[in-house]
Specification:
Layout lengths: L3 E7 L5 H17 L3 E7 L3 H7 L6 E4 L10 H9 L8 H8 L1 H10 L7 E5 H6 L7 E5 L9 E3 L6 H5 L7 E6 L4 E8 L2 E10 L6 H5 L4 E4 L6 H18 L4 E9 L7 E8 L9 H8 L4 H10 L6
Helix pairs in contact: 1-11
C-alpha cells in the first residue's frame, strides 16, 4: 500500500477518550496493512489542524466522535481541502447527529421510530412531558452521553435536570422495553444484528466502553423475520440520511406481551466506535471481516463530495 493516511482523532467533545482509543486502533491496523500512517490529535484551533495535515495525505481516516467531529463540522474542513475522508459527508453527518431531524426523516421514510418531543430544560423542570418511564437524551451527542431513563417515582430527576449541561434543549422519548439491538452497515450491505446485554441498568457510556460492561450476542437470538427486518430497517435508514462508508443503526425490539414484537429505530451512528469493545468490529468479525480488513476497506472507499 502506498497511500498516505492521516488518522484524525481526539477532538473536544465528551467522547474525546473514545475517539483517541478508536484512532489508535485504526492507525495500528492501517500501518500493519502497509499504509503510511500519521496520527493527528485535532483540537478547536483550525490553523493547527491545517498545519498537521501538511504535507497533505491521500486520505483522512476520520476517527473523531461527537460534536465537532461527527456533526458535519470537520467534514466541511475536509471538503474545503478536497481530501477524501472516511465515513459520511457533511449533510448526512449533520442530520444524523441532530436526533430530532433524523427522526423526522426516518418517519417520512416509513421507518418505525419512537414517539418523542423536544423540550427546553425549563419545561422539564416544571413537569414531566410524557408519563414515566421515559428517556431523556441530548439532541446532538453520541455514546449515550447524557442519556437518562426516568422511571416511575424517580424523585431525583427534578434536581438533575436543573444541572443539565448538554444544551438548552432535550429529546424526551417514550421508553421502549425489551431488547437492545444494533446493526452494522458497510456500504449498502447490512453485516448482521447484535443483541447488547448490558451488565448494568442500561447500555450507558460505561457499559459501552468498560471492559466487561456488556455482552454482545452475535448473531442476535431473534426470530428469523425480526432479524431480517432489523437488517432491512438499518439499510433503509442508512440510505434515507445519505450515509456512506460504515454506519451503525441502534434499535429496540419490544418482545414484551404488550409490545407485539415491534422494532423501533432509535438512531444512526455515522462514526461508530472502533475501540477494542466496539460493536461494528465485533459484527464484522462474525461475517469473516477482520479489523484491519474493515479499516482498510474504509480507507479505500473514502471520498470527497466537493
Amino acid at each position: 500500500m502506498s497511500k498516505n493516511v492521516a488518522v484524525v482523532m481526539g477532538g473536544w467533545s465528551p467522547e474525546r477518550e473514545v475517539s483517541l482509543s478508536s484512532g489508535r486502533e485504526c492507525a495500528k491496523a492501517l500501518a500493519d496493512r502497509g499504509y503510511s500512517v500519521r496520527v493527528v490529535d485535532a483540537g478547536r484551533d483550525l490553523p493547527s489542524l491545517l498545519r498537521a495535515l501538511e504535507p497533505r495525505p491521500d486520505v483522512i481516516f476520520n476517527a473523531l466522535h461527537g460534536v465537532g467531529g461527527e456533526d458535519g463540522t470537520v467534514q466541511g474542513v475536509f471538503e474545503l481541502l478536497r481530501i477524501p475522508y472516511t465515513h459520511s459527508g457533511v449533510l448526512a453527518s449533520a442530520v444524523a447527529m441532530h436526533k430530532p431531524t433524523a427522526k423526522a426523516i426516518f418517519r417520512d421514510a416509513g421507518l418505525p421510530v419512537v414517539d418523542g418531543v423536544v423540550a427546553g430544560v425549563g419545561e422539564l423542570a416544571g413537569g414531566d412531558l410524557l408519563p414515566a418511564p421515559f428517556v431523556v437524551k441530548p439532541i446532538n451527542q453520541g455514546s449515550s452521553v447524557g442519556v437518562r431513563i426516568v422511571r416511575v417515582n424517580d424523585n431525583s430527576w427534578r434536581e438533575e435536570v436543573l444541572q443539565w449541561s448538554f444544551g438548552s434543549e432535550l429529546l424526551v422519548e417514550r421508553f421502549v422495553p425489551g431488547r437492545e439491538l444494533t446493526v452494522a452497515v458497510m456500504g449498502d450491505r447490512a453485516l448482521g444484528v447484535c443483541e447488547i446485554v448490558p451488565r448494568g441498568t442500561f447500555y450507558d457510556y460505561t457499559a459501552k466502553y468498560a471492559t466487561g460492561g456488556s455482552d454482545h450476542l452475535i448473531p442476535a437470538p431473534l426470530p428469523a423475520a425480526v432479524y431480517e427486518k432489523a437488517l432491512e430497517v438499518s439499510v433503509r435508514a442508512h440510505r434515507a440520511l445519505g450515509c456512506r462508508g460504515v454506519s451503525r443503526a441502534d434499535l429496540r425490539y419490544d418482545d414484551t406481551p404488550q409490545g407485539g414484537g415491534r422494532l423501533y429505530l432509535l438512531e444512526i451512528n455515522t462514526q461508530p466506535g472502533m475501540t477494542p469493545t466496539s460493536l461494528v468490529p465485533d459484527i464484522a468479525r462474525h461475517v469473516g471481516i477482520g479489523f484491519d480488513e474493515l479499516v482498510a476497506w474504509m480507507v479505500e472507499h473514502a471520498s470527497c463530495e466537493a
